[in-house]
Specification:
single chain; about 260 residues; alpha/beta; 8 helices
């Protein structure tokens, strides 16, 4: 299927690895020009080099900018390279796990800055240009914890739920009639460094082995496996497509069937 987005420009955050990289790669394979952003310069350069191989086949352009997108200075640096984007994929690493008794105001502010306020600022900075051009796609990578909260992930689910509420209203505003859609992707357990780090932390707290905890989680998923970044990226690319123009304001759960509800 031709997704009809060849030649568009996308900003993809947290794209040096994991789910962000999967989204960037899927877009590049569709001929979308990308500006990828992450804090670690070495990993980002390596990601850009990998994407450049796909870009040779699709004709896309790959730019990269090593910045902390959660800061005002980082966003200014990114927008100094390129201002107008047709697609924006927001993504930031989740806050640390823990017990809510230990979280103070500073913990919440950091979580909100990364997982709610930064996506809001990126959306605000780009959607008017999208609307003027008659086409725009905002994809926020959030978490399945928004739909099925986990006590130790309270900082993440709290901040991301705030973003979810904002997007639910903004997506149904006047921008929708001008070709701009906003959707959230809610990943469950994917085979990423974040998953491994989560279970390493859990192993330290429980005394169980990392391997045992990971195997228990895998068996609890109806698909009997973890997701991979390529399939996540393909879903993102479709939501960015011309064909997905009637999908708006949705929270799309990608978890192998782990969530037990029907809504």
């Amino acid at each position: 299927m031709d997704l009809g987005i060849k030649g568009k420009w996308a900003l993809v955050c947290g794209a040096s690895k994991g789910l962000g990289f999967g989204c960037a790669q899927a877009l590049v394979q569709e001929g979308v020009n990308v500006l990828i952003v992450a804090r670690g310069s070495l990993a980002l350069e390596q990601a850009a080099a990998t994407l450049a191989i796909d870009a040779q086949q699709s004709g896309a352009t790959v730019l990269f900018c090593a910045q902390d997108i959660t800061t005002e200075a980082g966003r200014a640096a990114v927008f100094s390279l390129l201002r107008d984007f047709d697609i924006v994929v927001t993504n930031a690493g989740g806050p640390p796990l823990g017990d809510f008794h230990d979280w103070g105001r500073e913990h919440w502010i950091r979580a909100l800055d990364a997982n709610m306020l930064t996506p809001f600022e990126l959306i605000k900075a780009t959607v008017d240009g999208m609307a003027a051009r008659g086409y725009g796609r905002i994809i926020n990578i959030t978490s399945s914890a928004v739909k099925s909260p986990i006590a130790s992930l309270g900082l993440s689910s709290g901040a991301r739920s705030g973003l979810t509420g904002f997007v639910g209203g903004a997506a149904r505003g006047p921008l929708a009639a001008r070709g701009v859609t906003m959707n959230n992707l809610l990943p469950g357990a994917f085979d990423t460094d974040r998953l491994k780090a989560t279970y390493q932390d859990a192993a330290q707290r429980t005394g169980e082995s990392v391997e045992l905890l990971i195997e228990q989680r895998r068996k609890a998923i109806p698909a009997q496996r973890f997701g991979n970044v390529a399939e996540f990226g393909a879903i993102c690319a479709f939501l960015c497509s011309q064909q997905a123009g009637y999908i708006n304001g949705q929270n799309i759960l990608v978890d192998g069937g782990a969530f037990p509800g029907i809504f």
